[in-house]
Amino acid sequence: KKKKMDKPCCVGVVRDPNALRGKEFLVGELPVYQTEAEGEGKTGVVVVHDIFGFSIPNSKYIVDHLASKGFSAVVPNFYFRSTAWDENKAFDSPDFPTWFGSIISEDFWKQFLKDFEVAVEHLKKGGCTKISAIGFCWGGKAVAQVAAAGLIQSAVSLHGVHDLKDAEGSKCPFLFLSVKDDPFFSEEQQKKISDYLEGLKNGGYLKAFSGVQHGFAVRGDYSNPSVKEAADEALDNTVQFLSKY
Question: Fewer beta carbons within 10 Å, N or C terminal of the chain?
Fold first, then answer.
């Protein structure tokens, strides 16, 4: 039986940080978390966190996973000038719409792209010859900005918040890993994006998972075998796509 979602974005588990393998440091003024890649690490991946930001360890574990697959992966704190949404704060709080509006504003995106470029330069200095990006939830929307700006070779959004413009604007192959019945990415928009990408034939595609909720790949309860299986499959799809494009 499907549970109804009672919060707008990425409800779920905050993982225990004790098994993290990477390091936090500053690149200029930008805080980042990076894990050393196994192998040469010639493909750099910038991971974009969800609305809960950099302080919870979930997106850092994604960096660890990508590093174990041979990618030079980094997650910057894109909210270091402002604040992430507090994990313990209610979503029906009256300041949520204003706060969310601030992280999708034109001014925010301009600064976000500058910070993203700082992360890209850092990866290139480390020897990366190809740069890709993946993002979760709000981070998927953020990756669409980067794809439209032509800063990356491939893009992946995991349960992002999207409309057709995000696919149309992309200058690179774009993989959308979504959820059926996602309240933030309507079935209509998913179908439009899927049809558009099929016609485009540049390798991008949309895949919708059923039986899991928005947020499953980064905030899922992995003690539930079906959630763990879906999250593993989504990350396998991500790794294959980043390796190919």
Answer: N
Is the model's pTM score more than 0.85? Answer: yes
DSSP string, 127-157: T-SEEEEEEETHHHHHHHHHHHTT--SEEEE
Instruction: Tell me the average pLDDT across 52-61.
Output: 89
Which of 76, 154, 64, 61 shows the shortest CA–CA distance to 122? 76
Please state, in angstroms and rounded to a whole number, the distance separating the CA atoms of residues 208 and 103: 26
Instruction: Classify strands 174-179 and 205-209 as parallel, antiparallel or unpaired.
Output: parallel
Q: Where do the H-state alpha helices sit in 80-210?
A: 96-102, 106-125, 138-148, 164-168, 187-200
The tokens of 153 are what? Answer: 């070779």
DSSP structural state of residue 215? T
Please give the torsion angle defined by the CA atoms of residues 80, 81, 82 and 84, in that order, rounded to the nearest 10 degrees: -10
Q: Which residues contact 98 (CB under 8 A, 6 or more apart)?
A: none
Structure confidence at residue 5 (pLDDT): 34
List C-alpha distances in Å: 72 to 95, 96, 127, 165.
37, 34, 9, 29
